[in-house]
Amino acid sequence: MNQAIEVRGLSKAFGKKRVVDDLEFTVSRGEVFALLGPNGAGKTTTINILTTLTTADAGRALVAGFDTRTEAREVQRRISLTGQSAAVDDGLTAIDNVVMFARLAGMTRIESARRAAELISRFDLTDAATRSVRTFSGGMRRRLDLALSFVVTPEVLFLDEPTTGLDTRSRRDLWELIRTVAAAGTTVLLTTQYLEEADQLADRIAVLHEGRIAALGTADELKARIGGDTVELHDAQGDLVREIATDGTVADLRRALDRLDEEGLDGVVSLRRPTLDDVFLAVTTTEPVAELTKEHS
């Protein structure tokens, strides 16, 4: 079986508010898949269903080949979840946190110590191994949280907004760790509000809007569907004076330049390619657009 996650018709409501509305997507084994959307889009609720923390009202989800509703225990044995807040014990050292998790996972003392040493090194915490976690920065706590997720190597790793609250350097350090994890074969599903994060990390991106998938594909596919390049004219102060959308062809680029000439405008011309910001704005300011959604087989 090539799919690590299969979601079919998933829905969930809290009271009269439907927060997940007929979701459908698949995630291949070894893929990094991002759920991108603003607060309230349904990202965390989707992860909670997939990790068996809550049940869906309708639909079906398979994780690592097991049904999240009827085979929850089997799902739990094959996944790890890193939530929005680091699940570490502030009163313990970094290495003691990992040893404790390893012991809870059924390892012997010797196995736990060996595994803790491996993970502390892998997640670049060696210099802080014997320090109390309460002295850690946000980025260090996140790295330790990820290390705990790998006490037993999961088939699927769920990351719920893993870099929220981190500074730029810590965020980029964590991205590198996530890439390393994925390169080793673990399937990663992450949620994020950060467009750059999805662009940098994900093999494919699903843009959530009001609990539904508004667009799905690779970053390049999503950008291409928004349209071609935009010709921009800036004045001497760098302010945008005029922009003309094109279909990306040479002929249309010439047409845009001719129009600027006809309008008698002067300044510096540049070409702007579509970004995930453009995708996000296009699909979240209107109803979800079916033709933007492309299932991955």
TrEMBL record:
The keyword Cell membrane applies. Residues 5-235 form the ABC transporter domain. It is found in: Cell membrane. InterPro entries: AAA+_ATPase, ABC_transporter-like_ATP-bd, ABC_transporter-like_CS, ABC_transporter_ATP-binding, P-loop_NTPase. Keywords: Antibiotic resistance, ATP-binding, Cell membrane, Membrane, Nucleotide-binding, Translocase, Transport. It comes from the Bacteria. GO terms for molecular function: ATP binding; ATP hydrolysis activity. SMART domains: AAA. It is a peripheral membrane protein. Its main location: membrane. It holds the Pfam family ABC_tran. GO terms for biological process: response to antibiotic. GO terms for cellular component: plasma membrane. This is ATP-binding cassette domain-containing protein. It comes from Microbacterium foliorum.
